[in-house]
Amino acid sequence: MNVLNLSLNLFLVVFVFISISAPKALSWSKEGHVLTCRIAQSLLEPGPAEVVHNLLPDYVDGDLSALCTWPDQIRHWYKYRWTSNLHFIDTPDNACTFDYSRDCHDPKGLKDMCVAGAIRNFTSQLMHYRDGTSDRRYNLTESLLFLSHFMGDIHQPLHVGFTSDEGGNTIQLRWFRHKSNLHHVWDREIILTALTDYYNKNMDALQEDIHSNFTGGIRSEDISSWGDCDDLFSCPNKYAAESINLACKWGYKGVKQGETLSDDYFNSRVPIVT
């Protein structure tokens, strides 16, 4: 399953769970997050879709993707500065494995402060939707926005990367003719190059291609496997492990500080992303 598509799975599982529990009511770049949220929302069953619609502010007219980048926009605001460490996981260099008890903490060692811990936390908060709109223990709209964003982040391989290079952020290189870094290549460069080369910069066309793979194409059988976890809260561990594996196999492999990445790297990695 490719990375953008994989990032939809727990998002759907969570809202399937909400639809069962609720009483009858039911780091990617901007482009990556928008695509993830658009497709995830389009695949929701009616009950979970209503939950999402009810939690969104009126001004977005039911469009979750309009706010999927909000957690990136506010992460350095004083009020939300505590969320900065929730967008990623630093793992031991070259271990190519994820262990929640070992890896899910912030630089000061505070436990659960990583993207997998954030998904667990905001999933737990959204479970309180079944308590009704009178429940004020959590801001469930914020919980929804954080969850949908972090589901994108945990499936971007370099958001689960090596500690010493900060998930590829300190690996400086060139992407074709301009300066970049390895993390940014996976966050945005590959997507933008694909949009330019294959879709005439039309994101709707890329979205249609990905969506068609689920509704009747080569990935139509994948949806049934998305909930294959021991329990709902073990799913983030599974996805973090998959991401660091992809980071080792496809992200870091063969990349050196200061080199130029171009056609060979792009052509072999774009199927992983899209």
Automatic annotation (TrEMBL):
Domain of life where this protein originates: Eukaryota
GO biological process, alphabetically ordered: DNA catabolic process
Keyword annotations of the record: Disulfide bond, Endonuclease, Glycoprotein, Hydrolase, Metal-binding, Nuclease, Signal
Pfam families: S1-P1_nuclease
Reaction it catalyzes: Endonucleolytic cleavage to 5'-phosphomononucleotide and 5'-phosphooligonucleotide end-products
GO molecular function: metal ion binding; nucleic acid binding; RNA endonuclease activity; single-stranded DNA endodeoxyribonuclease activity
EC number(s) given by UniProt: 3.1.30.1
Signal peptide extent: 1-27
UniProt keyword Hydrolase present: yes
Family: Belongs to the nuclease type I family.
Protein name, UniProt field: Aspergillus nuclease S1
Species this protein is from: Acorus calamus
Gene that produces this protein: ENDO1
